[in-house]
Amino acid sequence: MSWLYLRKFTLIALGLVLMVFAGVSFFESRHLKEPVVLSRGVTQVKKLSAYFPGVKGTISDSNIYVLEGAKPGGTILILGGTHPEEPGSRLTTWILTENAVADQGRVFVINSANRSATTVTRLGGGYPPDFTIHTKWGEQKFRMGDRWSNPLDQWPDPEAYIHYPSRQELAYVDIRNLNRAFPGRANGTLTEKTCYALIQLIQKEKVDIVIDLHEAELQYPVISTIVAHEKGQNLAAMASMMISGTEGFSIGMEYSPPALHGLSHREIGDHTQAISLLLEAPEPFLDATRGRTDRRLLLEGKDEFVVKAGKHGLLFEKMDENGWPIEVRVGRHCSTILQILELWSEENPEKSVIVKGVPRYAEVIEKGIGNFLHDPAKADPKRVYYE
Amino acid sequence: MVVTYIIAKVLKVSTELSMFAAALTGGLAGGVGIPARHIVEGAFTYLDIILIFITATLFMNILKESGGVAFVVRGILKKFFRRKSILFVLISLLLLLPGALTGAGSVTVLITGGMIAVVLGYMGISKPKTAAIIFILAGMSAAAPPVSLWAMLTAAGVNMPYVGFFLPLLIPCLFLSLITIFILGSRGKPVNLEKALKELPEAPQKMNWIRVSLPFLVFLFLVLAGRIWPHSLPVVGLPMMFMAAAFISLLLSPVKINFLKISRDTVHQLLPLIGTLTCVGILVQIMTLTGVRGLIAITTVTLPLVAVFITLCLVLPVSEAVLMWGAAPVLGVPLVLLFNTIGLNPIIALAGMSVIWPLGDALPPTAIIGRLTADTVGMKEPYSELLKYCIIPAVIIMAVGTLMVIFSKKLAFFTLL
């Protein structure tokens, strides 16, 4: 009998030790403060709840960084962190918010579109809790995040997710996927409310173009591409042609499928005046055949198993021993955004959005992402915000 | 990891602890030490499913304690004891419904399995055969639409909407369920009603169809309401739906039930299943972290295509036996991407795979649904007897599932109906 109690006590004690160590790690992840040193071009920092009070006081009340040029022009919204497990997306918005200056028009940037999803990592996915970018002044740590909102913020899931308003049936877990919940509902789940708030922002600020930044596994056919709503097909096609000719990398263009609901490139275009575009860059970390799941794979994008899958013709993007480093992925996003803005401004002079200070593809690769992140310790505290 | 698992099993350590030991070894061998965060995170992977198990079982245990189960079994026997074919079709539908709605074969076993086992028993069908029928139909119910977790998890993994799966899943599941019950139950005799009713426990005097059916109707209403008015009602979730049904059953019980005792007994009854699911989650997490999962996936998808087709019917059940639903993200995702790349229809191919996967739920090391079925039926024979009677229907299911994958392009019209 005493042996039984001793065994039970030992197992409980070991369980408690595990829980304490894990609990500390979970707490730190959820509360990690990610500094944003505002670029001199950021004229205002708003909250998402300013457009829809339904998200006020929730984790989804994200920061909105507004860069307003001296000359009036068009308005663009850039969404990072729709899927926080795609770090190239958030890091691109960091470069924008810390470096960009608008000469004409307005640029709205959201670094954590689904902030709840930045606070959790994939169950069963073996994700690292965070990753670090090296800079001249030290290191900056970022949360890893997941594809879906944190169950701590939105739970339980339904037995079937029926999208609003199309009534299309989607995987139940996608009720927590920001890119399956557009256009959202005012009285819906937290994820739907977040989408609704974003739609309100787009409508109230008369946004002309929304660019949603993503990364994709190489086994996914929609990769290295601009997915465009009908309204943005010409713009996307032109951007694709120009980039392939001038930037040193290729990017395709695909039509947003009209029957596939909940995605930003479909619903924002359908439910608002804005042109909706979604950019995909390759991220081997997300591939199901990936090997060791760690920070190195996340940032360097090198994996021998994914290379092997490529050799067997199983990938939709090339993959070799050079992998897909984070600089390449972020550089692609930066150049694609700039190219879209330049083409838009040429075609719509009265709605031009002219931005400077943002590095292009070659410069991001040459100097590294850390070169464009600024030291929060040396910045004016009033110009430092936290994600 | 494999060696640790085998050693643990040889030392007669339970399946769940053997998996946990394998996961710890995997972490140490993979150079990540004992990663507390990953162990705890992995342990929570199947929390929702565990809650469904607990609440559904609590509901069934209350229904049983109240005399409802005895009442239903007696009722079915009185009505259909002479007509075997009709009885088989009704039994199939009764077994398919709970799993189809919840996506969990265990719910079928727990909700209707016990009652059906008694009916089949009085038809002279042996317990291992009865267990095989209930196990196979529970598996088909889990694969059947509207909720098929293997299809949903895989579809989510390849960013494919869970649309167009209804008929590609419904037709094979229905067909294979009927084939199974008619093959295994072919020697079943018409029930000797008098004898059966004499041997069955009496239902409490005040028990009636309203008291039995109302909890099920409440559950069905909550499921349907969530689908009909999804945007007007809050998200309830399956565990809460089962709890609502359990409370209705408790309120309507003609006999007094000690709720705390029955809750405690339910958790005690399910502890091995909960432990297995928890440890499967930990194992999958460590396998992913260390790259073992990727190794398995890349090895599978780079096999010659003919070998993939030939081994599909074995690889899927084995992966299910080891990883349970974890098999869908581990193997299902790369396989569907492979099939998509070579021009097959991913929806039909995935539906074919989803029909084969549940067969693994009878195989060690987990054998969760198989063990649960054997327990529910009250089988005293060795577990291998259940497996023996599963062989013929399993071969048919494997053949149908594999043919669906191979000819998925030609069957693509089912996705449009």
- Estimated helix fraction of chain A: 25-40%
The rounded distance between the terminal residues' Cα atoms of chain A is 53 Å
Radius of gyration of chain B: 21 Å
The H-and-E topology of chain A, N to C, reads as HEEEEHEEEEEHEEHEHEHHHEHE
CATH topology of chain A: Aminopeptidase
Short description:
The complex is a heterodimer of chains A (387) and B (417). Chain A has helices spanning 2-31, 87-99, 190-204, 233-246, 264-271, 295-300, 304-311, 326-347, 361-367; strands at residues 35-37, 42-47, 63-68, 71-79, 101-110, 130-135, 138-143, 161-162, 169-170, 209-216, 225-228, 252-255, 275-282, 354-356, 384-386.
Layout: helices, strands, pairs:
The complex is a heterodimer of chains A (387) and B (417).
Chain A (H helix, E strand, L loop, with lengths): L1 H30 L3 E3 L4 E6 L15 E6 L2 E9 L7 H13 L1 E10 L19 E6 L2 E6 L17 E2 L6 E2 L19 H15 L4 E8 L8 E4 L4 H14 L5 E4 L8 H8 L3 E8 L12 H6 L3 H8 L14 H22 L6 E3 L4 H7 L16 E3 L1
Parallel strand pairs in A: 4-5, 4-10, 10-13, 11-12
Antiparallel strand pairs in A: 1-15, 2-3, 3-5, 5-14, 6-7, 8-9, 11-13
Helix pairs in contact in A: 2-8, 4-8, 8-9
Chain B lengths: L1 H9 L4 H15 L6 H8 L3 H19 L2 H13 L3 H19 L2 H18 L4 H17 L5 H9 L8 H19 L8 H7 L9 H20 L9 H15 L6 H32 L1 H10 L3 H19 L3 H15 L4 H11 L11 H10 L5 H24 L11
